[in-house]
Each structure stands twice: as structure tokens, then as C-alpha cells.
Design the sequence.
């Protein structure tokens, strides 16, 4: 943070290295001198927003924007959050460090954040570590699981050295204040304690049988019989655009129940698309306090072709692939938003599997349907699609966001929310449905998004990495084809492995859930 003449310039993990935002700050009196961050700064206030999309509803990440100045000196300023009572210590940086310090800090953060799973080794014992995370925001908090319960630990990363705990971590009578990064792990020289990645030697072999156009039987055999693992099939084309690590985390994000996990030899009937080459894949897991962590690399079997389906018309095939979509505007920033979608074959000449639309954390893993219109070779995204996915909060749907003079609403009802038409130059244009609410007010669909019917109200999840909470795209939209090979939702390419959801809880979802109160029904004519 840079402070100058009432203006503060901020860079943070919310924006990433090289990105800054300016806002205003001021001093005041309230039980002592205070410093207050008066105007909104996206890289600062996201940590104190009550509904940022990360953390509990109405709490967010538990940060502050107003602070009491407890002490100040040339070498540090100590603040206390007025709302949370958290202690914040500001230390000065040389002016020349501004452009390099954050990049070095990010590199230090990635040392631990790139662990697939964690364990503490102390006094000859190994303790599992549970670390929570929301999409794109790895926390600075973990719990050590002991036979007597869990021990919480909050920490910060220290420049070039390791990590330091907010309060000493005490396990088995040993107190640890900070740890040093060395040899691929964090160590405490005094106690000999170390935090390291959990790695299993579990290996997998696969047997494929009864291959059909829509299903296949796959039997997985692990070398370690008592460890949990997950297996599925992935289109071979996915590996051209994503690493094995990317695909592992995409598969893991689809795990919501213990019933999806296996131990020992297991045979499953899996769903496939016709005329597509697939690769059987598996990876080992451990479960800590209900949270799922991968402990092996992605294992891959021999590729196979699914059964033959109905032939596809050239007009239907023209839509298959990955498209870059650009909106006309957006709800918050009022600027165009660009994102990639994938249209993959669902039913030849009839429908597509659609992933990537809008900004939700579920955009790549929950597939909706786009219907193909043989009359004019367009596609239509119907409103109110019930999605075939399990969610602890209710039933997921693909629903439109309607923009009216009185506000923006989730608009129920069955109607063609978005319609895509192919242009003569190979690009496409997507128009938005215009209609009336049941009370007569006119609205225009801005976009469609993922919402959960909780039984009387609708809820939603926060944004995927790279998007801003609440800043949904607003159409009409332009589409430019990026690649011709259409991949199913679970094979969607990822743009930055460091922002992928790397572990999550089986009984919940990895992103904070929020109830949306602005819901209206469309009047269908």
C-alpha cells in the first residue's frame, strides 16, 4: 500500500502482481486516532465486504476497512480493526521494492499453495492438516487434526523465509511460532517439526469393456487397497489444451459425495458421448475433516473410442468447439466482459452440452443445454433448465438475469433466454429475450447463470477466478470460434492452475453460497 495526500494505492492477491487500484483514506478520532479507507478499492475492500463471494454470507473474509491506530513508529504501525478487533501490523518498504516485492511474495505463497495436500510431522508422529479454500482464494488458516481434536492455526507468509503464525501453534506440548521453507517443505529448526505435502505411491490400472455410443464399463484396480481414489473417463482432446494437473482438479471439483469415491478394485458404468476418444483416469485422495485432497498424480490408461452415434449435419457441426464470447456491457463495471464457452455434442443434430457461460464458479463443471434449431441453424439456451447435479443447498438451474427499469432480477419461466445465429464470416451473434414480468413491467435478459432453488428462494455461488462478484455480463453477445474440437464440460481447459479449486468439502461446495432475493416470474405470451 502507498499512502500520499489522502490517496492510497493498493496491490493485493485479489488483483495479482502488477495491478493497482487507487482510493481515498482519511484520519479521524474514535476511541483514539483512526485511519479509514473511505472510498471503495476492489483490491482492499474485497477482504471486508460482507458478501464478497468468499467466506460466510454477511461475514465474507472477516476483514476491516476502519482501524484504530494503536501505535506508530518509524519501523512499524500497529492497527486494530474496529469491527473484528484483529491486530494489523504495517511495516515500511523501500520505494524501489514496490514493483518487485509482490512478485516475490506471490512466489513464496505458491510454495505452500501448490501442495496438493498437507501433513505435520512432529515427534515421530504424522498429523493430517485440513485447509479450507474458496475458488481463487487460498486461505491463511489451517487446522491440525490430532487424536484430541483439531488445533486451528492462522498464519502469514514471510518474505523469502517461510511462514509465521498469528499465535504460536501448540501441538503435543511443542510451541511453534514460525517455520522456514527448506528442501520443499516448511521446517522449525528448534522442534524439528515440518509441514510437507502428503504423497501416496498408489498406482492404477484400467480394464475397459462393453463400449457403447453413450456408456462404457471401466474397472479400476489400485495397488494400495485401503486408500480412497476417484476415477472417470476424459476425452483425449482435453489433454491438448490442459495439463494433467488441470484435469485432475477439474475432475475433483465434481466430487460432492463419498458415494463417488472408491477403495480397492471397482467397476463402474460411465457416461460418454458417441464417436469420441476417451482416456480412463484416476487419482488417489485423502479425506480430512470432510475435506478432499489429492495425494497422487493423475493416472491415465489406454485410450479407446466410444460407440458410433447418428451422423451430424454440417450445420450442426459448425457450432461445435470452443468460442470466445464478448458481452456488450456488464452489471457493475459497465464494461464488456470476455469469456470462453464450449459447445459439445449432446444429441446429434438436436442439442449441445454448454459450459463456460457467465461468471459462476460452476461455469466449467455444470453443463447446461443449448438446443439446435434445424429451421435456421441457430441455437437457443432455454431458461429454467434443471441441471443434473447434486447440491446440498437445493436443485441447480440455469436461469436468466432480467434487466428492467426497477432493477435486475432472476427471471423464472420457460422461454428462449439467449439465441445464437451464425454470421456469414463464421462469427456468431447472440440476442437476448425481451418480455414482461407477471406484473407487466418489461425486461430484457442480460445473461443466464447458475442458481439453486432452495425451496422457496434462489441462491447462487460466487464468481470463478478472474471474474468480479456481481459483475455479470450483459448482452447482446458476439462469438468468435477459438477451436473446432468440442470437449465436454469436465474436459474444459483451465487458464491458470494456481487459481483452480484444489480441494473442497464433500458435504458442501467450495464457494460461499448466497441467497438472492430479487426474483420475478416472466409473463409468457
Sequence:
Amino acid at each position: 500500500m502507498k499512502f500520499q495526500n489522502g490517496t492510497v494505492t493498493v496491490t493485493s492477491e485479489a488483483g495479482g502482481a502488477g495491478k493497482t487500484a487507487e482510493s481515498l483514506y482519511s484520519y479521524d478520532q474514535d476511541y483514539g486516532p483512526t485511519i479509514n479507507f473511505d472510498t471503495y478499492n476492489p483490491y482492499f475492500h474485497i477482504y471486508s465486504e460482507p458478501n464478497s463471494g468468499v467466506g460466510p454470507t454477511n461475514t465474507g473474509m472477516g476483514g476491516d476497512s476502519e482501524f484504530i491506530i494503536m501505535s506508530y513508529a518509524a519501523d512499524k504501525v500497529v492497527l486494530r480493526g474496529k469491527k473484528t478487533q484483529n491486530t494489523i501490523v504495517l511495516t515500511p518498504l523501500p520505494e524501489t521494492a514496490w514493483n518487485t516485492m509482490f512478485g516475490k511474495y506471490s512466489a513464496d505463497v505458491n510454495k505452500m499453495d501448490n501442495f496438493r495436500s498437507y501433513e505435520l510431522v512432529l515427534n515421530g508422529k504424522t498429523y493430517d492438516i485440513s485447509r479450507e479454500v474458496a475458488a481463487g482464494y487460498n486461505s491463511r488458516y489451517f487446522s491440525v487434526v490430532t487424536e484430541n481434536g483439531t488445533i486451528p492455526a492462522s498464519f502469514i507468509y514471510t518474505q523469502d523465509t517461510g511462514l509465521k503464525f498469528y499465535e504460536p501453534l501448540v501441538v503435543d506440548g511443542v510451541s511453534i511460532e514460525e517455520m522456514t521453507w527448506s528442501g520443499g517443505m516448511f521446517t522449525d529448526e528448534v522442534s524439528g517439526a515440518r509441514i510437507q505435502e502428503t504423497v501416496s505411491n498408489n498406482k492404477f490400472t484400467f480394464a475397459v469393456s462393453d463400449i457403447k455410443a453413450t456408456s462404457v464399463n471401466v474397472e479400476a484396480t489400485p495397488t494400495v487397497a485401503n486408500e480412497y481414489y476417484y476415477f472417470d473417463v476424459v476425452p483425449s482432446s482435453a489433454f491438448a489444451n490442459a495439463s494433467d494437473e488441470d484435469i485432475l482438479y477439474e475432475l475433483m471439483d465434481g466430487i460432492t459425495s463419498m458415494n463417488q469415491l472408491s477403495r480397492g478394485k471397482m467397476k463402474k458404468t460411465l457416461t460418454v458421448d458417441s464417436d469420441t476418444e476417451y482416456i480412463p483416469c484416476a487419482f488417489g485422495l485423502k479425506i480430512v475433516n470432510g475435506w478432499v485432497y489429492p495425494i497422487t498424480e493423475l493416472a491415465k490408461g489406454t485410450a479407446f473410442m466410444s460407440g458410433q452415434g447418428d451422423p451430424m449435419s454440417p450445420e450442426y457441426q459448425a457450432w461445435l468447439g470452443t468460442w470466445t464470447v464478448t458481452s456488450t456491457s456488464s452489471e457493475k463495471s459497465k464494461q464488456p466482459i470476455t469469456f470462453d464457452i464450449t459447445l459439445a455434442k449432446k444429441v446429434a443434430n438436436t442439442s449441445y452440452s454448454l459450459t463456460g457461460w457467465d461468471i459462476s464458479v460452476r461455469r466449467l463443471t455444470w453443463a447446461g443445454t443449448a438446443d439446435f434449431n434445424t429451421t435456421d441453424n441457430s441455437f437457443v439456451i432455454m431458461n429454467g433448465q434443471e441441471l443434473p447435479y447434486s447440491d446440498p443447498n437445493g436443485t441447480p438451474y440455469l436461469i436468466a438475469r432480467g434487466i428492467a427499469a426497477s432493477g435486475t432480477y432472476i427471471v423464472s419461466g420457460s422461454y428462449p433466454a439467449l439465441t445464437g445465429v451464425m454470421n456469414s464470416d463464421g462469427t456468431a451473434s447472440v440476442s437476448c429475450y425481451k418480455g414482461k414480468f407477471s406484473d407487466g413491467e418489461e425486461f430484457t435478459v442480460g445473461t443466464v447463470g447458475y442458481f439453486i432453488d432452495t425451496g422457496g428462494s434462489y441462491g447462487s455461488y460466487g464468481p470463478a477466478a478472474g471474474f468480479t462478484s456481481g459483475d455479470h455480463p450483459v448482452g447482446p453477445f458476439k462469438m468468435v470460434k477459438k477451436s473446432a474440437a468440442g470437449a465436454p464440460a469436465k474436459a474444459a481447459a483451465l487458464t491458470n492452475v494456481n487459481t483452480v479449486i484444489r480441494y473442497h468439502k464433500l458435504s458442501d461446495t467450495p464457494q460461499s453460497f448466497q441467497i438472492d432475493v430479487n426474483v420475478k416470474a416472466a409473463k409468457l405470451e
About this structure: Confidence is low (pLDDT under 50) at residues 486-517, 519-525.
